[in-house]
């Protein structure tokens, strides 16, 4: 069956379930998404935006969907063992799209911050939710957003009230859990109100033998003088396909610090769109990618400068080995009247093996005449002179290669402002390269797989 036809048919068969009751607040959005999918279809590689990722193949498998909200079978304490070591702060646990727990006895949620499931917010504050949900991620502009809007039932809402400044990051661990091939569709809504500051760490984890496709659409509102540190860390498996779509709207004098790290997975497609609507907004986006085996990682970035006197800084670094494929398309768009813009975009890539491939496309589109905007990209191999230098000092070649790759990604990791998380990311990067060398000492990914296997047995 055609990929699109099977999802439209699934919606038609479950209309009462998806349009009535707790889902009623999303009913108009679902109908718009249904029409958008019928009009535009699913993305193909003929579209420039999805040129490097074959969406049709990813969606061809007949995945199961948990439309009737059957429990995942995973308990909160199973996921809580995956807490990022050394990173304190409240812990939110999710299995697939199900929120297992937002209560953390060891570290309660700080005053001024509300974290709830989408279903709870829909019941308690339907009008507020309707004013924010699906207002930034428009179904007519991206078919993957439309598919998510059509079928997603749950997700997470994080709201930082005006003036609050919690010291520790809120940690959200999203664990894939199923006894069958499964598609998970979830929403994330983050609202940081005026003069508030929030740090949010999202960790995507997956383990086990079943194939999973995860579609997440995140909408982020930064009001005047708001500050957000957002870190997205992927630790999946070869059978995981992740489609992550993040849209951010920045008001005047707001600041966004966003780090995207794909450390392990199968197929990853991340879209990040940032719109600076107010003056003196600042955006910093950085990321690190490790590609081994036949992993595929595609980052698509758009930063829109709509107001004058704003700044943006983008840095993405890839290390690709074996037959892995990487792609980066980053556009900085400066609209008419957006003068005094300062922007820097850099994409640096390392292809360790001759069979690894990298596609890079940094872009500038400028309609103002008083700006300072630069962009550039590089694709290279390991420095043979550095390897020779290290060999002369008794460092074995495999260890030397690992050290050079780790140092290459270090520039992206160093931008993480939270020191405990920065140290943990450095540890994960090192363990990922040591796994390639065949003598991994055991990291959080392996530990999660072991725990799930023990529970199954």
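-> sequence recovered:
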């Amino acid at each position: 069956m055609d990929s699109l036809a099977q999802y439209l048919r699934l919606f038609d068969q479950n209309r009462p379930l998806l349009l009535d009751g707790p889902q009623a607040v999303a009913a108009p959005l679902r109908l718009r998404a249904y029409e958008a999918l019928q009009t535009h279809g699913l993305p193909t590689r003929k579209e420039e935006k999805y040129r490097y990722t074959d969406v049709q193949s990813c969606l061809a498998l007949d995945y199961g969907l948990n439309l009737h909200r059957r429990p995942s079978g995973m308990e909160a304490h199973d996921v809580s063992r995956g807490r990022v070591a050394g990173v304190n702060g409240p812990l939110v646990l999710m299995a697939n799209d199900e929120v297992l727990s937002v209560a953390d006895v060891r570290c309660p949620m700080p005053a001024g911050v509300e974290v709830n499931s989408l279903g709870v917010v829909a019941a308690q504050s339907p009008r507020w939710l309707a004013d924010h949900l699906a207002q930034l991620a428009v179904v007519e502009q991206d078919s993957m957003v439309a598919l998510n809007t059509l079928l997603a039932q749950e997700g997470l809402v994080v709201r930082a009230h005006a003036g609050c400044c919690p010291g520790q990051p809120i940690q959200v661990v999203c664990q894939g859990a199923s006894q069958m091939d499964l598609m998970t569709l979830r929403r994330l809504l983050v609202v940081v109100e005026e003069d508030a500051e929030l740090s949010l760490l999202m960790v995507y984890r997956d383990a086990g033998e079943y194939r999973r496709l995860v579609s997440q659409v995140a909408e982020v509102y930064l009001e005047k003088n708001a500050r957000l540190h957002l870190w997205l860390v992927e630790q999946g498996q070869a059978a995981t396909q992740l489609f992550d779509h993040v849209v951010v709207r920045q008001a005047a004098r707001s600041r966004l610090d966003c780090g995207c790290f794909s450390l392990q997975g199968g197929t990853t497609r991340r879209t990040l769109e940032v719109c600076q609507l107010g003056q003196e907004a600042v955006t910093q986006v950085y990321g690190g990618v490790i590609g081994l085996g036949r992993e595929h990682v595609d980052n698509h970035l758009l930063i829109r400068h709509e107001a004058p006197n704003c700044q943006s800084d983008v840095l993405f670094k890839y290390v690709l080995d074996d037959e892995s494929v990487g792609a980066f398309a980053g556009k900085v768009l400066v609209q008419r009247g957006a003068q005094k813009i300062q922007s820097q975009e850099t994409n640096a890539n390392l292809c360790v093996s001759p069979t690894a491939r990298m596609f890079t496309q940094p872009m500038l589109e400028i309609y103002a005449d008083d700006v300072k905007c630069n962009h550039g990209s590089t694709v290279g191999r390991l420095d043979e002179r550095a390897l020779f230098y290290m060999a002369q000092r008794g460092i074995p070649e495999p260890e030397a290669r690992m050290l050079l790759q780790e140092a290459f990604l270090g520039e992206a990791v160093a931008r993480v402002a939270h020191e405990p998380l920065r140290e943990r990311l450095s540890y994960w990067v090192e363990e990922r390269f040591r796994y390639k060398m065949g003598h991994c000492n055991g990291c959080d990914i392996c530990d999660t797989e072991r725990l799930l296997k023990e529970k199954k047995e």
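The mean pLDDT is 90.
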